[in-house]
Design brief:
Elements: E1 7-10, H1 21-29, E2 34-38, E3 44-45, E4 51-52, E5 56-57, E6 68-71, H2 84-95, E7 100-103, H3 105-112, H4 126-130, E8 145-147, E9 153-156, H5 161-171, H6 177-189, H7 193-202
Parallel strand pairs: 1-2, 1-6, 2-5, 6-7, 7-9
Antiparallel strand pairs: 3-4, 8-9
């Protein structure tokens, strides 16, 4: 049994199903328990209508009990302040030196919280984050996924779930070097030759 601290996956209504599947599946295969966390104890429904019963309540989650907080995109990020508590929790995590990974709409939530003003980041597009009125436009990087200089914050846009996972797997040490590169080539580029590298590393 792994003695690693769990990874916490934030869940909420309109959660974007496709954005974190690679991340959570391969973290689990790498020995991390994945636990869902929501504002309350009620079940939530993803964009697809999949029902998720959360494992934990956000208000009780402490950074020191976690390896990573994953924030997925959702329609609710752009329709009000309902998900703002998750951005505030991300602030707690970063202040405690515990990584946060945010994709799609969650990056806008972090921008509104002021967490991208001084950190390298990316998102769906620069104008999407600019609409939040944040002060980090000069730190925007046009890339598939970005890990900031501290190694604590991963960001990506909605079309880059594999690159998002690549960065998370790197910062948590699940894969590195040529094995990480092979993982990405297999799942992003359908490069069959990369499978042999992963197979050899698994022995």
């Amino acid at each position: 049994m792994s003695n690693r601290k769990p990874v916490h996956l934030a869940v909420y209504d309109t959660y974007a199903d496709w954005e974190t599947g690679h991340t959570t599946a391969w973290l689990a295969r790498g020995g991390y328990e994945v636990r869902t966390v929501a504002v309350g104890t009620d079940a939530v429904r993803t964009i697809a209508g999949v029902r998720i019963q959360p494992d934990e309540v956000l208000g009780r989650l402490r950074p020191e009990d976690s390896s990573l907080l994953v924030l997925t995109g959702a329609d609710l990020w752009d329709t009000g302040d309902e998900l703002a508590p998750f951005a505030r929790k991300a602030r707690e995590f970063l202040a405690a030196g515990v990584p946060v990974a945010a994709i799609c709409g969650a990056t806008a939530g972090l921008a509104r919280e002021g967490l991208l003003d001084d950190r390298a980041h990316t998102s769906a597009a620069p104008f999407y984050l600019a609409a939040t009125g944040y002060g980090g436009g000069e730190r925007y990087v046009d890339a598939d996924a970005v890990t900031d200089d501290s190694g604590l914050l991963v960001t990506a846009g909605p079309t880059e779930p594999v690159a998002f996972a690549r960065e998370v797997l790197r910062i948590l040490g699940v894969y590195e070097g040529e094995v990480l590169d092979a993982w990405y080539r297999l799942f992003h580029d359908s490069d069959a030759e990369a499978y042999a590298v992963l197979e050899a590393a698994a022995r």
